[in-house]
């Protein structure tokens, strides 16, 4: 809807001046009353300052065949608003669509933000897990190498123990041999020690026998 440049509102009963400017009928009437100087027949248009006549011609004094060519300077106008109403409806629709789109975009931005935040949280968790996984892997390989070392040491001790065991067996065998040798020697010694006694005994028996003879 067009607006009146005097009251700056929607046109009410619009009228048009000869210069083509449109005002509310009441606004233009007030302007004419206020701007008319003395008995002058013209008033200046409030927009373009072009004077226009304000006297209504007395038609009855004119011949009938020219009367239809005489028109008042200020005329009532009828503005076709159907087109502008359709445009207004389209504008309203477009505005509501824009509002919906803006809301949709805000929703999308918010959901995008929350998704981004969740993604960052997941990233953080993944990073922490990866870090702890690395630490666990390090600890595991450390333990493994320690275990390996311990196994090596155990193997070494086992070998030493086996060596000692073998040496022990050899020593035992040597000892047994020495013992048996010692027993042999003891027997021989005892035999040697008993020989004179035997001899003496057999000699005395021999002497007794001789004496009896
Ligand atoms: Zn007005
Ligand atoms: Zn004008």
Which helices and strands, and how do they pair?
Layout: E1 14-16, E2 22-24, H1 25-35, E3 42-44, E4 51-53, H2 64-67, E5 75-76, H3 82-212
Antiparallel strand pairs: 1-2, 1-5, 3-4
Bound molecules: zinc ion (2 copies).
Order of helices and strands: EEHEEHEH
- Quickly give the CATH architecture of the domain at 1-79: 2-Layer Sandwich
Could you report the average pLDDT, rounded to the nearest whole number?
90
Class by helix and strand content?
A: mainly alpha
Bound molecules: zinc ion
Number of helices: 3
State the strand order across the main sheet: 2-1-5
Percentage of residues in strands: 5-15%
Overall, the morphology is: rod-shaped
Q: Mind telling me the C-alpha Rg?
A: 70 Å
> What is the helix fraction of residues, given as a range?
55-70%
CATH class category label of the domain at 1-79: Alpha Beta
- The first-to-last residue Cα distance is 187 Å
Q: Tally of extended strands? A: 5
The biggest sheet amounts to: 3 strands, antiparallel
Quote the CATH topology of the domain at 1-79.
Answer: Herpes Virus-1
Can you tell me the residue ranges where pLDDT is under 50 for at least 5 consecutive residues? Answer: none
CATH superfamily of the domain at 1-79: Zinc/RING finger domain, C3HC4 (zinc finger)
Pfam families: zf-RING_UBOX
InterPro entries: Znf-RING_euk, Znf_RING, Znf_RING/FYVE/PHD, Znf_RING_CS
Protein name: RING-type domain-containing protein
GO molecular function: zinc ion binding
């Amino acid at each position: 809807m067009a607006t009146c440049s005097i009251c700056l509102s929607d046109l009410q009963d619009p009228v048009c001046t000869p210069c083509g400017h449109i005002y509310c009928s009441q606004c233009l009437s007030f302007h004419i009353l206020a701007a008319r100087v003395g008995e002058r027949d013209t008033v200046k248009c409030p927009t373009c300052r072009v004077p226009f006549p304000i006297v209504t011609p007395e038609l009855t004094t004119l011949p009938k065949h020219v009367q239809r060519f005489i028109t008042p300077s200020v005329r009532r106008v009828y503005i076709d608003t159907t087109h502008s109403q359709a445009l207004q409806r389209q504008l309203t629709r477009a505005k509501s669509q824009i509002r919906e789109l803006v809301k949709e975009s805000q929703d999308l931005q918010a959901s995008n933000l929350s998704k981004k935040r969740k993604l960052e949280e997941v990233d953080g968790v993944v990073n922490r897990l990866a870090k702890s996984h690395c630490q666990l892997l390090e600890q595991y390989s450390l333990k493994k190498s320690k275990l390996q070392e311990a196994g090596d040491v155990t193997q070494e001790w086992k070998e030493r123990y086996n060596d000692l065991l073998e040496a022990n067996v050899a020593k035992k065998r040597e000892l047994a041999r020495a013992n048996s040798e010692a027993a042999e020697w003891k027997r021989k010694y005892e035999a040697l020690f008993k020989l004179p006694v035997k001899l003496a005994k057999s000699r005395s028996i021999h002497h007794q026998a001789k004496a009896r003879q």
